[in-house]
Each structure stands twice: as C-alpha cells, then as structure tokens.
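Problem 12. The chain below contains 160 residues. Write out its predicted structure in token notation.
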Amino acid sequence: MAHDSGSRPFDLKAMLRDERFWKIAFQVITLLIVLALASFFVGNFSRNLLQQNKTFGFGFLRNPAGFSIGESAIEYLPNDPYWRALMVGLSNTLTLIAAGIFLTTLLGTAAGIASFSRNWLVQKLSRFYVGLVQNIPLLLQLFFLVLCYLRHAAPTGRAN
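Solution.
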C-alpha cells in the first residue's frame, strides 16, 4: 500500500512544537488583546460622555477662544473662535520652522567651511562646535538654551 505524502494526518504535538505556529498564534493573541483593550476604552469613553451629557466632535471650534496670542502674522482677537486660534498657531509654527531652517543652514554651512580653514584656531573652534552639537542630544541643548534664557530674562530682584 502506497502512502500519499500530500494527505498527512493531523498531528497536534508536531504543530505545538512548530515555531511558525507559535509566531502566528502570538500575533493573533496580541491582536485580540489589543482589540479587547480598544473596545474597553471606547466603551468607557462613550459611557462617560453620556453621563456628562456631552457629545464628541469638533463643534467647539466655533466657540470663542477667550485667550490672546502674543505674536502672530494673522490678526487675532481673544473673542475669535478656536479654529482661528489654531490657524494662528499653525502660522506661527510654520514661520518659526522657516526661520530655523534658514538660520541653521547658515550656521551649519559656516561651521563646515570653517572646519577646512587654514587658520588653526578657527579650524579647532569649528570642529569643537560641530563635535559638541553632534554629541549632545537636541532636547538637552534646548533645555540648556531655555535655562540660559530664563536666567538672563528673569529679574534679579536688586534695587536700582
């Protein structure tokens, strides 16, 4: 009697030892857990909104914001709606990004050119600056700059 290799009987022990089965099973179990957690959080969120007689949506964007924004390219008053405040914030962000890209390009180009200088001091200072900026995380640099600014801008408390 010949055994057909295409129709093997189901072997549970072999399947449980198969690494491919466990990789797929782990992904399916993880997906089910994520879906269960998402369902719980969405249900909890909707129950809490119903308890407070509130709705989920973007209707609040038409309400008056009630706060002022110091600097803006777009005219803005405190009684303007929230959507206008968002547009002013977006405009301010894009302006800051453009200025930052321009200034960092100039500074980086100057530092790169200075690192090839024949002047020993200029070359060493440039390479020190580039090494310092490259090796210190940006968030730490920002904290340092903000602390320096706050220390400089804060009143000293001394009488004139």
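Discussion. The mean pLDDT is 88. Students who got a different answer should revisit the alignment rule from Section 12.3.
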